[in-house]
Write a structure and sequence with these properties.
The structure is a single chain. This protein is an alpha/beta fold and 320 residues long. It folds into three domains: 7-74, no CATH class; 96-138; 158-319, 2-Layer Sandwich (Nucleotidyltransferase, domain 5). It has 13 helices and five strands. The longest helix is centred in the C-terminal third of the chain and has 17 residues, at 286-302.
């Protein structure tokens, strides 16, 4: 069940109260304007007084002289928050002593929630696993993983805007499985986000060194320097890959874990290459696949019109 915490009602209270105190309108007038009962307006005024610790505007020292009413009113709090109508205590809530025992057991064992639940079962305590997990999360006793959004957001460089060639280059590896018992193929694809120029290197295996060499070969092929290389968290983009590119002053950044949309341009190029060039990989040899992809890259970079650019990638580069 959803409980009302609408922010529009809070703004309506603020406007109604300001009309009463600033414009000196009566409660009946304000109630008619906002379609409320007078008792509702009186409750709003009561909440407003409680929120501001019952302000007193009487000038006891000089009763005939007005206090700075406008200044005083403007300095008060006018946004009366909506209190949730959710029940404060559930009728099936766990006993506080049991909750404290679960927290103590979690801190003492330092194990997973499942182990904590099994320990409680051995102590003949009737509690469900979901309750143990919920209590651990409520008291923030869950271990934080060293990967994911928080980790990469802290240690990753910021994603640059691809305003010129080489500002952001995306790299990914395509795995082609041979279902007829032959060797598998690995294709390292590289694309410049600004111009959409693409480069590929094919082999029977891949490593961090070969992937880094493919990036350097693509930089030489494109004719401009790479300012940032973006890749996923695959094993071919490890420390060795980073060290080789660092020698050539090329920084790298990783995408978020299980977020392929961060590398959307190279993922879309992988699909385009599969549909228009590679097709189902069967018993073709490495030279045959290499020749086919090289011919397709010439067509892709020089002749194929990109829908976003409205021109071929090489034409986009020449405009720069």
């Amino acid at each position: 069940m959803a409980y009302c915490i609408d922010k529009a009602i809070e703004k309506q209270r603020e406007k109604a109260l300001k009309e009463i105190f600033f414009e000196h309108r009566s409660v009946s007038q304000v109630a008619r304007r906002y379609g409320r009962n007078r008792s509702t307006i009186y409750r709003w005024i009561k909440k407003w007084r409680e929120l501001n610790n019952y302000p007193d505007f009487n000038n006891y020292g000089r009763p005939r002289r007005l206090q700075g009413a406008t200044f005083r009113l403007s300095s008060l709090k006018w946004l009366v928050p909506t209190l949730s109508s959710a029940p404060k205590v559930h009728p099936n809530a766990l006993d506080e002593r049991l909750v404290a025992h679960i927290v103590e057991t979690k801190l003492e064992l330092g194990r997973s929630n499942y182990v904590v639940w099994l320990t409680l079962q051995n102590e003949n305590l009737e509690v469900s696993f979901s309750s143990v997990r919920r209590i651990v999360r409520r008291y923030k006793l869950q271990r934080v993983r060293l990967y994911g959004k928080k980790y990469w957001a802290k240690h990753n460089p910021r994603r640059p805007k691809a305003e010129s060639p080489g500002d952001l280059v995306e790299v990914d590896t395509v795995f082609l499985m041979n279902h007829f018992g032959g060797k598998h193929l690995y294709i390292t694809n590289i694309i410049d986000v600004n111009t959409r120029l693409a480069y590929s290197r094919i082999g029977y295996s891949y490593s961090q060194t070969s992937t880094a060499n493919a990036v350097l070969a693509a930089q030489k092929e494109f004719g401009f320097s790479f300012k940032m290389v973006q890749c996923d968290n695959g094993r071919e983009f490890g420390q060795r890959f980073k060290d080789i590119l660092a020698k050539h002053r090329i920084p790298i950044r990783h995408t978020r874990v299980r977020q392929p949309n961060d590398n959307a341009h190279i993922e879309r190029f992988n699909r385009t290459m599969r549909e228009e060039s590679i097709g189902p990989y069967t018993a073709r040899t490495l030279p045959e696949v290499t020749k086919s992809i090289q011919e397709y890259l010439i067509y892709y970079n020089y002749a194929r019109i990109h829908t976003t650019l409205r021109m071929a990638p090489m034409q986009m580069l020449q405009r720069r």
